[in-house]
Amino acid sequence: MLEPAGHGQPFPRGFLRIAGASLAQHQLGLALALDCQRLICLARGPSAELIALQHHAEAAGMRFHIVAGPQQLSTLVTAADELIVISEGLFAEGADVAPLLEGRSSVVLALPDDGAVAEGFERLDINNAAAGLMRIPGALIERLHDLPPDVDAASALTRVALQAGAQMRQLPVDARATGTWKMVRSEGEALAIEAEWLRARLAASRSATASDRLARAGVLSFGASLLHAGNASSAASIGCVLALVLALCSAWLGSPALAFVLAALGWVLVRATDLLRGAERQAYSVAAPAIPRADALGWLVDASLVAICVMAAPSSQQLLPLGLADHIFAPVMLMLMLHLIPRLLLDGLAGWACDRSVLALVLCAAAAVDCLGPVIRLLALGLTVAGILLPPRRSH
After folding, report:
1. How far apart are alpha carbons 224 and 202 in whole angstroms?
2. For residue 7, which phi and psi values (nearest 5 degrees)?
3. Which CATH architecture is the domain 13-186 placed in?
4. What are the tens digits of pLDDT across the range 180-227?
5. N or C: which end of the chain has fewer CB within 10 A?
């Protein structure tokens, strides 16, 4: 945490943000993925960002140390230790790294110099550049005492490891092309990598529904800036709740068609919340909770659709107990069928059948021509028949 984040920047580039998390936070996730027990940061001194990083590391069960120079490493690293060295500015995915460092021998990861040096990676020889990550024995730390005190620790240890016979292992060819292995030097590069990383995380699926595709397009358009600001999934969640509140108000005021359109928008925002929250969890190395936020919002959309269907019933029938019960029963059964269908049908079929936005627009059209009740019953019946007749999901 020593090099500044571009000319005139007051903070190190380790605290440039990608997907809402600092580069240092991403590197902490990398260390956790490699089962490291201690984290040692080379920094000029404590700062608010470093203290926050320390809290994250200690919450994950790691010991945390700050040292001002490479010579101080020998007081923390013994010959019996195994050391993972992550170069300053490296952005890499933990899932990609772990297989590359397998084995008992020392490993220095490298990549061909087809523009890698221009991107910020250090040249090793005429054909290769250092990939910014290696695993070496702790005994090599003692070699740093023979070097000047201001030496770059990662660069020096790379040379020392290669001289000591460490294996040079090439990265996969597409590692840099997919945005999962980059060297970050400035705010502009962080923003570009953020957008590239987000596109790689949100690759389109053939079984994606209309809502999923709309949500993905919206996240790709605005998600990078929201993630960079640190409020991406929260903004999408708040937007979903506001859309549902407006939908219920519209239904109460006698505009069910508008209410269903707003509910459809709410469901798209649920899918966007799911995508953005997944990106945030990956950036911060956070496990998914027992009940993800998107699931809770999905149930809220279902409840809102039921309420809109009930409020769209003729006022004379709403006042009668039997009429009210009848208008509640059919929408509730429809929503329950939507939750049952994914357990019965193949993913692609179930996804399209359970797309709440498509359902809301169908109900909007039914409300516009004053045949909402029969359409709800037909949809519930159609889902039941589909669950019986269409190809079932295979259990594994």
Report:
1. 12
2. -65, 125
3. Alpha-Beta Complex (3.90)
4. 788 998 888 888 888 787 887 776 666 678 898 899 988 888 877 777
5. C
